Amino acid sequence: NAGVTQTPKFQVLKTGQSMTLQCAQDMNHEYMSWYRQDPGMGLRLIHYSVGAGITDQGEVPNGYNVSRSTTEDFPLRLLSAAPSQTSVYFCASSRTGSEQYFGPGTRLTVT
Amino acid sequence: AQTVTQSQPEMSVQEAETVTLSCTYDTSESDYYLFWYKQPPSRQMILVIRQEAYKQQNATENRFSVNFQKAAKSFSLKISDSQLGDAAMYFCAYRISRGNTPLVFGKGTRLSVIA
User: Fold this and answer.
1) DSSP codes, B18-76
2) Is A42 on the interface with B (CB under 8 A)?
3) Which residue of A39, A73, B24, B82 sits 20 to 30 Å from the alpha carbon of A7, by its own alpha carbon?
4) What are the strands, taking DSSP E only, across A52-105?
5) Which residue of A36, A90, A99, A106 is the best one to mutate when testing the B interface, meaning the one whose CB has the most B CBs within 10 A?
6) Going by C-beta distance under 8 Å and a sequence separation of 6 or more, which residues neighbour residue A31?
7) Is the pLDDT of residue B103 over 80?
8) How does pLDDT run across B45-68, given as a tens digit for each residue?
9) To probe the interface with A, which of B103, B105, B107 has the most A CB atoms within 10 Å?
10) Contact (CB, 8 A) for A77 and A60
11) Cα–Cα distances in Å, from A53 out to A32, A45, A64, A95?
């Protein structure tokens, strides 16, 4: 099993550009989520999904879009990048109620 | 809403000594899970230990153990015989056990290990 994979590992964007962070898992987990990690703030939930076709907002959803067309994939779209979106992004997946498995993270810089 | 509080932003411990990281949480649920995650400089989030709220026995994983006090809503992590490789950010997290609900994280404690 590859577990949870994320691409890219690093990305630099200019303000106003859009991009998609990819996340995939091969463990057949229903639950997937996206977090951002900023210094002193811990991990904050952006969006999550409890199954294909079902998504919901987390604590900090503004400026981000998600969709879940398959169980395996859960991409995160930045619609118009802003410097405030400079962060490290983590994707995670899990079975119902259990611990989450995390991807390696994507470091995004918006200039 | 559930919250998780880690009151120690930074801690340090001498190699081979024992250190305890604190975590408290707020919930009205009776059935839930608690977790400790480790994040070394590599940035990878690694599960250290988990505790089911219905279990009275404290979870243990090798040198890592927890002190789970359900009534006090406290979930501390004890690291025994600390090693240089234990230096990392440690996050306490909470999750309701029914349904697919989000994991709620504390802000983390940075642990330094002094040789």
Assistant:
1) -EEE--EEE-S-SSEEEEEEEE-TT---EEEEEEETT--SPPEETTEEEEEETTTTEEE
2) yes
3) A39
4) 54-57, 64-66, 76-78, 87-94, 101-102
5) A99
6) A48, A49, A50, A51, A93, A94, A95, A96, A100, B100
7) yes
8) 999 999 999 988 999 999 999 999
9) B103
10) no
11) 12, 19, 17, 17
Of the two residues B7 and B102, the one the predictor is more confident about is: B7
Residue B108: list chain A partners with CB under 8 A. 42
Contact A110, A102 (CB under 8 A): no
Rounded mean pLDDT of A95-111?
Answer: 91
Measured between CB atoms, which of B33, B91, B108 is closest to A97? Answer: B33
A46-60 pLDDT per residue, tens: 999 999 999 999 999
Q: Comparing C-alpha atoms, which of B26, B2, B21, B27 is closest to residue B89?
A: B21
Q: What values do phi and psi take at B2, rounded to 5?
A: -75, 140
Handedness of CA B24, B84, B10, A42 (dihedral sign): negative
Residue A71: count of CB within 10 angstroms of its CB: 17
CA distance A15 to chain B (A): 25
Closest alpha carbon within chain B to A42: B107
